[in-house]
Amino acid sequence: MENIANQKALTDDKTLSEAELNLVRRLFTTLLLTVKNLTLYPEGHGICKNSINQFYTQLTAYINKFGKLRFEIEREQVVCRDGILVEGIPEEGSLHHTLFRDGISWLEFTPGVEQKEVSDLLLIINRYIKLSAEPEGDIVTALWENPFPHILYEVTEFFSGSGNEAEDFNDIVSSRGSLINEGTEMREKAHQVDPPIDLINIALTPDEEMTLKEMMLSEEEADITSYLDALLDSLLQQKEEDDFSKILDVLSEEFTLTLGRRDFDIGLKILMGLQYIRDICREDLPWSEKLISGFYASASGKEALAPLNEIWEQIETDDAAILYDIFILLDSRAIHTLLSLLSKPQSDPKKKVLLDAIVHFASSDISALELAINNAGDNLLERLVSVLLKMDNPQSLKYLQRLSHHSSGSIRYTAIKGILKIDPGRIKEMFNLIVDKEDSIRQLVLAQMESVRDPAAEEFLVSYLKKIRATDFYANHLIQCFRILGKCGSARSVPFLKDTLLKWGFLAGSKRAVIRTGAAIALGTLGLAEADKVLDAAKRSMFPGIRKIAGSAIEELSKEVPVNDR
User: Fold this and answer.
1) What pTM was estimated for this model as a whole?
2) Residue 205: predicted pLDDT
């Protein structure tokens, strides 16, 4: 008892100022988070190392300013001098519960404490934080075996307080004697030969194995959820910018880890929780909005989202909906990762999630799309056209026009197709593409010109066909142009087609026959009385060649020449 009195006399009874008490509370919160991280992650994990570093930094800063720091562990509270740090019956597995359970009445850190001492102490606590049915040692024993020069503690002497220490002592000796006897009996039984174990009877059935796995998974998820709840709750209690920022760093690392583990519901919980905290703290803690925005910026970056690139092809389609919810809570920096994911093999629902999310970002921040277009490869640029088509934004047409001049034929084709889908009237600006080097683009433009009778298209084709020379003669292409003139033209084209069929003479041989055949096809396609009169006149021509072309051009020559052979 005298020893206890002496130890109490050594305790500094100085009253803590409000500022120092708040500092100690933040320090103790960091300690709790560190211990919790150690229980969730394997020793040596990056989060564990960072947590220990943060606690040690705060601890040494406090000691350098105020001197030693002592936490007094009582049944229902943890105090520092006259300041209450934690109050209430501790939960099993908490730091408070563990230290009180193992009889540690106070824990003190003194000047000169080294990080290795702190790290080793926390690892010891973590080792014994959950007692097994047959524990091998305890925290006190481990501390006796590994003394720390700058970390002091006191172990409670378990007396009943009746004043009769002799009787208490006899009770302890008696109880220890019974334990020794029980141990002797157990050792004797250990030497007895047990009956052989029937492995078949104790083996788990497949259903039992599945149930066991589900139970273990459920427990792990519950632990992580409780941990995240504690982190988010601690943010609401923080009043200091530095501590707030450190907790956000932990949540940032946890968010990336949830993606790698495919715990998407946990990742969504983090994002939604911080959104809620940002709204609540905006007025009272103006600096919190900037810090939380910084979190979202970091979480939206390539490094934070990197796990998705590794596991995207293995992600189930059923997870698509929750992934969309995650994506739209990020900021526009995420568009780079989403574009890279879009290039991977995947189901339509997953592709739709990516496209919808990219459209969401591009619609709200066109500069993000600009950046993506400037840095994307050809494969991604083709997919970006799908994004631009889904955008309800005038800027999308501008970017499609820009891509229509790209060096890649497939990108130009996709962009031009997109432009014509948004605004078919733009075909007037693309007539010259009927001579593009890419056949797919030529066919696309010609098909659009063919779809409606348009005076502008008619005028362009007549002008183009008048300029045909032997050096740029492509039979099939010309036949196709004449056929489309017949579909988009009018009576205004009849004089040109009449002269071409009956008088075209500067080209010789087969080339002249092709031109006349094209004119006959166009006249027959127009479906006008004036055009039919020209064909009838051609059938009665004094020249056998013209008569033959007029009679069979539409039926035979258009089939003889392959459509795609320029």
Assistant:
1) 0.52
2) 55
